[in-house]
Structures are given as C-alpha cells and as structure tokens.
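As promised in the previous annual report, we have extended the structural survey to additional targets. Below is the entry for RNA-polymerase II-associated protein 3-like C-terminal domain-containing protein.
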Amino acid sequence: MAPRGGTPDSFAAAAGPAVAQAPPATAPAAPPRPRSAEPSPRDRQQQRLAAAAAAASEQLAARMAATLKAPRSSVEFESTWRALKGDAALQAQYLSLLPAAQLPTIFKDSLTAPVLLAITRAALAAVVAPPNTAAAGGGAEGASTPAGLAPAAAAELVAGLTRVPRFPMMAMCIGSRDKTELKALWDAAAAALDGAPAERLLAARGAFRV
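The corresponding structure token record, generated without further manual editing, is:
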C-alpha cells in the first residue's frame, strides 16, 4: 500500500504523462499582393509600332477612298479591284460607284468568271451586312453611302450583272464550291430584303442557277 505522503514528483508519476497543450491558433497569412503587370520596354515598343501601323493603314484607306471613281472599262475595274484586295469595306464602297445600268457598257465582252464571282459575292455580303447609313451621314434608304454598298443598290448591281453580254457563259464557269457559297449568301440576302429589291435579287438568282 502506497504511503499517503509523498513528493510532488511521485504524484505526477502516479498520474501518468502530462498531455501536451496545443499552441494557440493563429490567423492564416494573407496572400502576397500580385505585382502590377507593367509591360516591358519591348512590349511598349511593339504596342507603339502596332498603333502606328493601324493609324497609317487607316490614313491610306481614307486616301484611297477619296480617290475612288467609277471605272470606264473592265481594265480599269480590275486594276482598282486588285488594289483593294483584302479590304472588304473599300471594295463595297467601290461597287457603290458602279451604275448597274452601265455594267454592259463597262464590261462589254471582257467579263471573266472570277470578276463575276467577286462582284456577286461582295454585293450579296453587303445585303447581309449593310453599311451603317446613320453613321455615314444619314443617307436615304436604298442609296449608296460613303460607308459602302446599300442593300437595294447591291440587289440592283447583281441584277445588272445578268445583262452583261458574257454573263451566261461566265455564270456556267463558276465552280460548284463557289456556287455553294453563293447559295448560302443568297439565302441570307433574301431573308434580309423585301419588296422590289427582293424581287430583283430573286430573278437574278434564277439567272445564276444557284
């Protein structure tokens, strides 16, 4: 039988090992603040060059737009059209200068299948995505504006192509893949027009056989 008295050490030994106390909880450390993403000198230089190139391109487009005029022959048309390659807005503006009634006189017997396809594709695209006439100065509905080719004028232009002397033969030379593209554009254009422009476009579609 253990003695009643004893030292504190003996009592601690009898009670067993002491339980270690957990340290007080601390708040999680705040995440480091991200450093501001400042462009490097090289990036800033590239941005300046890109901005300068864009400004120069806009100035060139403005100068070309100011000098565009209606062609007097197929040679003049094709020369200007090649110069406008890749710029759909300028191409649409150039087409707005073409009098539909004068197409047989301009192209005579010189119309080629690539030119026929290019004009038709651009004109139908202008019907699907017409220019913003309000932003361009508020022209009357159906009239050509500096922004491009108005839908009604585009429909008249496509109809005018069917009256060019070489049209029947050149229409037959358009490949099946290109005709598939024209068919999709024609469907979208037909949905965007009504009235007389829609009727002209429908009649022209029959001549194109798409």
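The two ends are 115 Å apart (CA to CA). Confidence is low (pLDDT under 50) at residues 10-14, 133-146. These points will be discussed at the next consortium meeting with the crystallography subgroup.
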